[in-house]
Amino acid sequence: xxxxxxxxxxxxxxxxxxxxxxxxxxxxxxxxxxxxxxxxxxxxxxxxxxxxxxxxxxxxxxxxxxxxxxxxxxxxxxxxxxxxxxxxxxxxxxxxxxxxxxxxxxxxxxxxxxxxxxxxxxxxxxxxxxxxxxxxxxxxxxxxxxxxxxxxxxxxxxxxxxxxxxxxxxxxxxxxxxxxxxxxxxxxxxxxxxxxxxxxxxxxxxxxxxxxxxxxxxxxxxxxxxxxxxxxxxxxxxxxxxxxxxxxxxxxxxxxxxxxxxxxxxxxxxxxxxxxxxxxxxxxxxxxxxxxxxxxxxxxx
Length: 301
Known about the structure:
Elements: H1 8-18, H2 21-28, H3 32-46, E1 51-54, E2 57-60, H4 62-86, E3 93-97, H5 99-104, H6 106-115, E4 120-124, H7 127-136, E5 141-144, E6 154-167, H8 176-180, E7 184-186, H9 192-203, E8 214-216, H10 220-228, E9 233-237, H11 242-246, E10 251-252, E11 260-268, H12 275-300
Parallel strand pairs: 3-4, 3-5, 7-8, 7-9
Antiparallel strand pairs: 1-2, 5-11, 6-9, 6-10, 6-11
C-alpha cells in the first residue's frame, strides 16, 4: 500500500498538532505504545525521521510538518473534487482579497463574475490572515500583495501596482529626515502594505521606529480619511487613491530612492482541481488592471 494513504498518517498529523504521544493517544482513543509503534513503522517505511526522541520528551521534525501540511492540502483538494463530482448545486467561489486590493480590483471582477452566473462569497482580511484561510480551506483563492512563501502555494501573477508615500499637504517632506518627523499612519502587522514598507526601509537601514510617531490603523479607508484631515503621512498603493491624487486632495511625495512597483498575486492551494477556473479569473483581472494602468498613464501624459 502507498504509505501516503496509510491510516497511520492520521496518527502523525495528530502528533504534530499535540506534540505528545500521550495526548495523541487520548485524542485517537488508542494506547500510547500503539502511537509509538505506528510512528516508528511509518518512519521505517518512508525512510524518514519524523520524531526526535530525547528520553521522555519528543520533538516532531520538519519532515513530519511538511508531510502533514501536504496531506492536509491534498485532503482539502479531494473534498473540493467530490463537491464538483456530486454536482448537486453550484459551489460558490470563495474569494479573499486584502483590504487594499478589495478597493481597486474587486468591483470590476465581481461584476464580471456575476454576469457570468457565478456564485461568489467575499472575504477581506490582511495577507497573513488570507493565507491562513487558504491553508484552513475556508477560502479557495485570494488576491494578495504582501511578501510570502510562494513555493507553498499555487500562484498566478496579476501585474504590478505603484506603491508610495502620500499626504494631504502639497509641499510635504522631501527627504527622509523630514519624513521621519511626520506622524505615520501604518497598517497592522500581517498586512501586505506594512510588509512592503518595512522591507524597503530595512534594505535602506531604516525602520518604522525611525518615525517620531506611528499610529497603527487596520483599515486603509480610515487611513485615507485621516490623511484628508491634513495630519500625517502614509504609504499605500496609489491606485487606491487615484481619484484623490488626480483631484489634488492628496499628493504623492517624492522621497529619495523610494520607487516601488510591487507585484500583485492570486494565491490558491497547490494542485487545486479548480485551477483552470482560477486562471480565467486571473486572466480577467490582469487585462483589466493593465487597461486601468494605461488609462492612468494616458491622463498623466
